[in-house]
């Protein structure tokens, strides 16, 4: 369920390992995991950021300069929490650059 949500939506812009029109999943996960090693905090911060993307609360200012601020996707918080937990649990480096 959350993998479908992730693959159907986030992957449009975020490739697994390659930064093209947005930072790769591996990249933003690495930044978030070093800021929030504990799953609960990772999920809290990521889901509320994606719910309402803002430069002031970004952990990736350089990416905003490079790609522009991520648009608001109008998901509800529960869905985003599921997606964030899925990102935390999944090793995207093992899936190669495919997609
Ligand atoms: C329309 C393209 C697009 C889609 C769809 C998209 N993103 Fe993004 N996202 C971006 C861009 C561009 C950035 C880099 C600029 C920024 O950080 O705002 C970004 C940045 C991020 C960041 C880093 C935020 C920070 O601290 O700056 C996270 C986390 C993230 N996206 C998660 C997601 C998740 C989860 C989904 C799916 C629910 C998703 N994105 C869907 C374009 C997209």
UniProtKB/TrEMBL annotation:
Domain of life: Bacteria
Cross-referenced PROSITE patterns: CYTC
Gene Ontology molecular function: electron transfer activity; heme binding; metal ion binding
Domain Cytochrome c: 1-91
This protein's UniProt keywords: Heme, Iron, Metal-binding
Protein name: Cytochrome C
